[in-house]
TrEMBL record:
Domain Histidine kinase/HSP90-like ATPase stretches: 286-377
InterPro entries: DUF5931, HATPase_C_sf, HATPase_dom, Sensor_HK_TwoCompSys
GO MF term (any one): kinase activity
Chain ranges passing through the membrane: 20-41, 50-71, 77-97, 104-122, 128-146, 158-175
Keyword match Transmembrane helix: yes
Lineage top rank: taxon: Bacteria
Keyword Transmembrane helix set for record: yes
Single Gene Ontology BP annotation: phosphorelay signal transduction system
SUPFAM superfamilies listed in its UniProt record: ATPase domain of HSP90 chaperone/DNA topoisomerase II/histidine kinase
UniProt keyword terms in alphabetical order: Kinase, Membrane, Transferase, Transmembrane, Transmembrane helix, Two-component regulatory system
UniProt-recorded name of the protein: DUF5931 domain-containing protein
The organism of origin for this protein: Umezawaea endophytica
Residues of the signal peptide: none
DUF5931 domain residues: 20-182
Length: 385
């Protein structure tokens, strides 16, 4: 993989399996030379030597074409690999016309010899281990149909062909995953550096001004106190934004739940999260954030202007637990059911519906003058993926 430096322009990631394709090209050259040498040695015993040289000529032309195609990223296309497999099997089948029955029974190498293994390697480099193994198996099946008999040598060749395609495919898949992880690490590093730069700038400027406005407004009182409260809320929001971890995701589509929750912190809302990542499927993290946002919205609407809320995130391994508590007056008994009957579906759909969709559980503890506490539990196995 090559990453262009800043003076070369924007960062560009080369095809992570380019080295496998270069190996495929080298293999095609070496195996053709082997097939050519085999034809020279065996031609005197062939039933149709002229046809053998025609096939060798076609192999040479096709080798030139595939070498040019596989040497360019734009030429590494599925149809070319499939055509390579068809051509290899087709040329291999001409061995029935070229060789004598005695040569076929004596396990004399077919006209294509090991040149035919190229498509298995190319399929593995292009589409992974199963495609490589399947291509190797098809080449082995063609060899069996041409020979007409199952021998130890034939079984060995099939195992080697399928195994080679499988191993190259594994290397291809691993290289692609590693490239994605490296790209994510580079993006995260760049985002963290930019966040730290902005944090320094904000801390030296905006946050200090807001803190001064809040302090002076409280000293003056009256309408200035209201402005001081607004400045304080913005100060807390900015501090939360700066302190929040950068959003990260994995190759499998998982995301860290902490950053989205940390951004919900305000002067009245305190958010506590673990020091390590809490990775969940991205859709689950999004839905849980929406649930918490809806609960905090209810606190703002119904718990009173002075009410405060606390959000606690716990990672218990097999499950993730979210606790949302406020110090408001609590929810009167039967109030949720009556609100649902009146058509106000905030809790029923935005909260209960989302948690049910995730396959989680929702518990409510409340009472007059006791505040409200919701507990959401979502298991990592099952639910929406």
């Amino acid at each position: 993989m090559h990453i262009k430096s800043d003076d070369e322009g924007p960062s560009v990631l080369e095809d992570p399996v380019a080295h496998l394709w270069r190996g495929t090209v080298a293999l095609r050259v070496v195996t053709f030379l082997f097939a050519l040498g085999n034809a020279v040695i065996q031609s005197s015993g062939y039933a149709r030597p002229w046809l053998a040289w025609v096939v060798v000529g076609v192999m040479a032309a096709w080798s030139v074409f595939t070498i040019q195609a596989y040497s360019r990223e734009s030429g590494r296309l599925p149809w070319i690999v499939v055509a390579d497999l068809v051509v290899a099997c087709g040329l291999m089948a001409t061995s029935v016309l070229i060789m004598t029955p005695m040569q076929l029974l004596a396990n004399v190498p077919l006209i294509t010899t090991i040149w035919a293994c190229g498509p298995a390697v190319a399929a593995g480099a292009l589409a992974g281990r199963y495609a490589g193994a399947a291509a190797g198996g098809l080449i082995g099946l063609s060899t069996y149909l041409i020979r007409g008999a199952m021998t130890i040598d034939l079984v060995r060749d099939v195992v080697l062909l399928a195994g080679a395609g499988f191993v190259v495919g594994m290397a291809s898949s691993t290289a692609r995953r590693s490239a994605v992880r490296l790209a994510q690490a580079l993006r995260t590093e760049a985002a963290t550096a930019e966040r730290e730069r902005l944090a320094r700038s904000i801390h030296d400027g905006v946050l200090q001004v807001l803190a001064r406005v809040r302090k002076r407004g409280l000293e003056l009182g009256g309408e200035a106190a209201e402005l001081a409260e607004l400045a304080g809320e913005q100060e807390v929001a900015l501090r939360s934004l700066v302190a929040a971890s950068p959003v990260e995701s994995t190759v499998d589509g998982d995301a860290d739940l902490r950053p989205a929750l940390q951004l919900l912190a305000t002067q009245k809302v305190q958010v506590s999260t673990p020091g390590t990542q809490v990775m969940l499927p991205a859709v689950v993290a999004l839905e849980l954030t929406s649930v918490v946002r809806e609960m905090l919205s209810n606190v703002d609407k119904h718990a009173g202007v002075d009410a405060k809320a606390w959000v606690l995130l716990e990672d218990l391994g097999e499950e993730v637990v979210l606790s949302i508590r406020d110090d408001g007056p609590g929810i009167p008994e039967g109030r949720i059911d009556s609100a649902e009957a009146e058509g106000r579906m905030g809790i029923a759909k935005s909260i209960r519906g989302r948690v049910a969709l995730l396959g989680g559980t929702l518990e409510l503890q409340t009472g007059p003058g006791e505040g409200t506490e919701w507990e959401v539990r979502v298991f990592r196995v099952g639910g929406v993926r």
